[in-house]
Amino acid sequence: MTRAKRPSDFFLYDLESDPGRGGPVDVVAFTGGTTVDVDLLVEAMREHLELSPPPRRLLLLGPEPAKEAIEAAAENPALNDALPAFTRWTETPQVHPLLFGIDGGLQSPRGDLEGASEPDFTAKLLRHGLRRIFDQREGMLRAGLGSHYVNPSGKHTQGFIRTGNVLLHSAEVAFVAMGVLKWWPSELRRIFVDTASISSVAYALIAMRALFEQNLEPPTIDSFSSYDGVHDFEFLPDHALCLISATTSGGLEEELIENDYLQAERIVTLFYCGPKPRRSARILCDLTRRPDQPGEPPPLSFKRAEECDMCRRGSSTIRISGDQFLPANPKVRDVVLNAGDAPPWLGRFLEAVVGSRVLRCHGGNPGSGRAREVYVHLQEAVSEVGGRFEKALRRRLRTMVPASLSKIVYVDHPSSRALAEAVAEHFQSESGRQLDVDSILSANAVLSREVSLEGVTGSVMVIAGAMSSGRTVLGISQFLRNVSEVESIVYLIGVARLPSGEDLDRVDSSLTYGRYAKTHPLVIAATAFLPGEHGVEPSPWESERTLLADVLSLLEDEPWDDDEEVVLAVEQIEARRREIAAAAADGGGGLIDRLFLPRARDGEIGFEDGNRLALRDGFVFWRSLPKAAFKAGTQADVYVTMLAVLHRLRSAEPDGSALVQHEHNRTVLSPANFARFNDGVIQAALLRAARPGELDYSHEAILSAQMQGLVRRAIEHMGEDEGEAAVEFLLAFAGEQFKLTPDDTNGLLAFLEEADLPPLMRALCLLARSLKPPALAVAIGS
Fold it and tell me: I want to staple 25 with a disulfide (CB 3.0 to 4.6 A). Which of 14, 91, 196, 361 is the partner?
């Protein structure tokens, strides 16, 4: 289950305080109202900061009429007492009030934010917030492979900005409105919008202006339906303001100006991505990558139909039309994975970790109470002489352990402690000098000042067994630089597993920057880019555990004729649930080779190791590894491999993006993948690593029929290699990890009713039936 959504009183985002150097960030907490619910603010900050690098300071931003409430909240003990727990206990960031005025300009009421009223600071604060909203709410629609958009102007393009996708939460809409305040004309009587989907911005703008102007006469709001309605609408330009949701060329604005419908100074575009706009254009947020705006998307190219290269290549069109800018006639497209889909870093990473048992799934940080989908365990791997990970580690230690090493500070985790001890052993063997016990320190002891680093000479190494956000290591780094006199710091990470290269670059620049570039080296033994873990979605194994609990409840209500079979099913389900819980418990160590349910043999499902799903030779994503790796590799290694491939396809550059999911355009994993990757362990990994939308065939009859046929064949041949993942397919069906059309769902249920299944699979069928609409239910197991 996902965590319940909280009221959206606040919008929080990171504001870089040292752009280009990746320095500490300011965190902005914005509210558009005049009151501040401190309890909701604390929870919003906790959620935002728990897995983020420690900020330099917190900026509480609101309208000038809310000055007293903003200042009171900044000084509220409930907020300030909570901050150390989710930022840092020492040098806790301070909360600074910040106010915006009737023209959107900023001021620091206490005068403790230098430069807060400067236009450059206002522009930066606004741009970072708008970018955060746009990116988080996926305002850019990507057509995916084999298709492209025809926008309302008739131009062909690979992407389309749909601002309506962005305007989901009141605080974020109010933030957009704050940016438009500066363009509010005198005696405003009417607001025109190109689509009703941005009317919320107009209403928020009026409400915000009313905070400053008590007797405001609210202007009217009307949509002229973009290009479809621009020539049939009477604009009445006097005392008007026009909001255009987004553009890639400025064409709609030109249409309004050239036809004398509105003057240029009365037109505001919310989001823009295209060629350099004219200087006088009023654009709230230019998304485009330019020399003065590095790291942003390049301009979207657009062509007339007769000039469209995509059409000539056979790409089909998705026409954007109507007042809501909805794509007409979208198609579900399927993707077949191939060797070229592997991310460039995958081969090097696999060489370091496959067979080392470093990768675990559904493991928890000691004391955290939270299970991670992918968990790093280094305790044995760092000391396994000749092992894959130990070799990768030694190569780096030879060149980066400083001869002047005097102290080691390790993140409080068993893997980090093991890595620190391995470094100490290497240092002794290379230098002949031994570090005493007092020289290997836990980060908690240092940060709480149980031990002091004052007067330390030589170098300090900061060591983390794994890094998923960089927050902890950055916190240690800031402490060492700001509190102690340490000058030389070397960072060693066993496995860095961040969501993207950009995230890694940011952490790298923050850690290594000093008096000179790369003052403090950062060395990583193995690097992977995998989905971020924010503690909201349960891991696939926690979902399995919940699902199996539902099966137990159904077994109590629907007993079978054969009591022994019921007892066996219950025993196997309870044992599996205990196994999953134990893996995530303190000291549990995660799942390594028991990630997936075993294969069926001779009509029975046995959980002995001989029945576990194992990899055969020929796995295309492991082709760079020696043959021995196929026997040594674990189920966790296979799962992380498939997760990495899918993550790359979800987050690739626009031209290479393959897995695109939004409400009007879907790209799914083709059922052919389960035929191409016919090892049961790969099929199981793909079923669990995919997001449900990527296996939703309910909108495409042909793909649904293919998937139903594939699942039926796996169950029919469950005793052979062809059907070794049959139990996993049934679990995925019962848990709605993949979806079929109603006809195919009913057909598969009818097939399962007649099949001779082992008790555990028969129990899963009860759940499969219970989750379907009543009209589709059939009496399985009766």
Answer: 14
Half-sphere exposure in the Cβ direction for 291 (13 Å, CA): 1
- pLDDT at residue 3, rounded to an integer: 42
Tell me the pLDDT band of 495, cut-offs 50, 70 and 90. Answer: very high
Triad 105, 109, 115: Cα angle to 5°: 55
Residue 319 CB coordination number (10 Å): 15
CA-closest candidate to residue 288, choices 328, 248, 340, 333 = 248
Residue 313's Cβ-count burial label (10 Å; 0-12, 13-18, 19+) is exposed
CA–CA separation, 79 and 681 (whole Å): 48
Q: 671: helix, coil or strand?
A: coil
Tell me how far CA of residue 197 lies from CA of 246, 261, 654, 731, in angstroms: 12, 22, 25, 40
> b/e for 515-537, b at 16 or more Cβ within 10 A?
eeeeebbbebbbbbbbbebeeee
pLDDT given at position 322: 58
Please report which confidence band the pLDDT of residue 692 belongs to, taking 50, 70 and 90 as the band edges: confident
> Residues 757-777: what's their mean pLDDT?
76
Select from 234, 194, 220 the least CA-distant residue to 324. Answer: 194
Pick the range with the lowest mean pLDDT from 212-216, 452-456, 558-562.
558-562
- The CA–CA distances, whole Å, from 84 to 244, 441, 462, 606, 664 equal 43, 21, 21, 49, 43
Q: How far apart are CA 683 and CA 662, in angstroms?
A: 25
Distance of alpha carbon 674 from alpha carbon 255, whole angstroms:
51
Between these two residues, 266 and 665, which has the higher pLDDT value?
Answer: 266
Instruction: Summarize pLDDT for 55-83 with one digit per residue, the tens.
Output: 889 999 999 999 999 999 999 999 999 88
Measured over the CA atoms of residue 312, residue 317, residue 323 and residue 326, the dihedral's sign is negative
Residue 371 phi/psi, 5-degree rounding, is -90, 135
The mean pLDDT value for 33-47 works out to 90
SS3 247: strand
Instruction: Give the 3-state secondary structure of residue 711.
Output: helix
Q: Which residue has the tokens 């028991």?
A: 594
**Helix/strand/coil for 13:** strand
Tokens representing 261 are 């419908």
